[in-house]
Fold:
Amino acid sequence: MDSPWITFAPAEAHRDYHALLSNLPLNKYSAVSGFFRFSFQIQKQLRSTPGVIGYSLRAKILSRNFWTLSVWEDQKALMEFVAKIPQGKPCVP
Structure:
């Protein structure tokens, strides 16, 4: 199950951007629902964070493997996003 690429701003052809790619393998099937709850919080945060170009999520539920990709205007915007992880208990793989 892949989410489509969600775009917030157009990317310029001759410019460098910062990307955050993550692989999140879960140890237990019981952690999948918590992962999705937390990912919805993250997606809400992405919509309100300046500097995000776009993001996507790939979910291989049966193998409990998840990947995220987000692209940012610069390192400052990316670091500000990472520093403000939503409140709540993140699922622990």
User: Anything to note?
Assistant: The two ends are 19 Å apart (CA to CA).
